[in-house]
């Protein structure tokens, strides 16, 4: 008899959400194990971003349950805050404070939320800036950096909060093609370090290389979920085959 899997770090059970009469998530269930890397792809408007935004309550789900680290995401403010402490999130836009230096962008969260000293926060910030290969940019301001560098600063800032889980919402879609690789390389390093990751992306090369599981969403539902080798070479659902033909032919 095989050993039971440990309890998932993220559990979504029959989650549904509406914007008015439009149902954007339709009975979505998903389990993510600690250290697992999940890539979510699908056409625009399929519910991908809404799904991951519900995990840290940037969007509120109306039906079903979401559990993170055994804590239910519900209306309890204490639960919400505890869950958010364990999650880092990266968006299409960098959302850096333009009037603060790169270093100050990274230290403000640990000082205010984690109650670190300035010295501790600065040491942590420099550690993660080196990790994303831009330690020499610490005293510049965001607008003095390229888009790829700003997104790497945003990754370092999220890591300074020492999350257990990283959520990425199309992190390369606002970047010029030559800057995409430098951000994906940093994400690859994170994955190799064992970070639990859910990544919404159209970068199929990244999905093939990094993902433990690739998910296709369409019309608010999970249409297919499989390891990359099977997802790309033997997709079961016609919708998956259609999506792959469209995206891989570009």
Mean pLDDT, to the nearest integer, reads 93
Number of discrete helical segments: 9
Kindly report the spatial arrangement of strands forming the biggest sheet: 6-7-8-3-9-10
Alpha-carbon distance between the two ends: 46 Å
Number of domains: 2
Main sheet attributes: strand count, strand direction, barrel closure:
6 strands, mixed
Radius of gyration: 18 Å
CATH architecture designation of the largest domain: 3-Layer(aba) Sandwich
Counted beta strands: 10
What percent of the residues sit in helical stretches (DSSP H or I)?
25-40%
Class of secondary structure makeup: alpha/beta
Shape: globular
CATH topology of the largest domain: Rossmann fold
Share in β-strands: 15-25%
Low-confidence stretches: none
| CATH class annotation of the largest domain | Alpha Beta
Keywords: Amino-acid transport, ATP-binding, Nucleotide-binding, Transport
Organism: Superficieibacter electus
InterPro entries: AAA+_ATPase, ABC_ATPase_HisP-typ, ABC_transporter-like_ATP-bd, ABC_transporter-like_CS, MetN_ABC_transporter-like, P-loop_NTPase
Subcellular location: Cell inner membrane
Question: Can you walk me through this structure?
Answer:
It is globular and about 50 Å long. The model has no long low-confidence stretch (mean pLDDT 93). It has 9 helices and 10 strands. The strands form 2 sheets. A 6-stranded mixed sheet has the order 6-7-8-3-9-10, sandwiched between helices. The longest helix is centred in the last third of the chain and has 16 residues, at 177-192. It is α/β, with parallel strands linked by helices. Helix 3 (102-112) crosses helix 4 (118-131) and helix 4 packs across helix 5. The chain has 2 domains: 1-69 and 167-250, P-loop containing nucleotide triphosphate hydrolases (Rossmann fold); 97-163, no CATH class.
């Amino acid at each position: 008899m095989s050993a039971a899997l440990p309890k998932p770090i993220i559990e979504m059970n029959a989650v549904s959400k509406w914007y008015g009469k439009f149902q954007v998530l339709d009975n979505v269930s998903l389990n993510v194990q600690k250290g697992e890397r999940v890539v979510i792809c699908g056409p625009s408007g399929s519910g991908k971003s809404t799904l991951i935004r519900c995990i840290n309550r940037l969007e509120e789900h109306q039906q079903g349950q979401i559990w993170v680290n055994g804590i239910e995401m519900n209306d309890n403010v204490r639960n919400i805050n505890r869950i958010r402490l364990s999650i880092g999130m990266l968006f299409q836009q960098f959302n850096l404070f333009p009037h603060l230096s790169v270093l100050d962008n990274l230290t403000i969260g640990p000082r205010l939320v984690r109650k670190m000293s300035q010295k501790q926060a600065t040491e942590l910030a420099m550690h993660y800036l080196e990790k994303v290969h831009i330690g020499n940019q610490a005293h510049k301001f965001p607008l003095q950096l390229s888009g790829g560098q700003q997104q790497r600063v945003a990754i370092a800032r999220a890591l300074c909060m020492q999350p257990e889980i990283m959520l990425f919402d199309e992190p390369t879609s606002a970047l010029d093609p030559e800057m995409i690789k430098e951000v994906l390389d940093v994400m690859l390093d994170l994955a190799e370090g064992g970070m639990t990751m859910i990544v919404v992306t159209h970068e199929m090369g990244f999905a093939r290389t990094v993902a433990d599981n690739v998910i296709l969403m369409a019309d608010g539902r999970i249409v297919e979920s499989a390891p990359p080798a099977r997802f790309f070479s033997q997709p079961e659902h016609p919708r998956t085959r259609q999506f792959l033909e469209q995206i891989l032919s570009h």
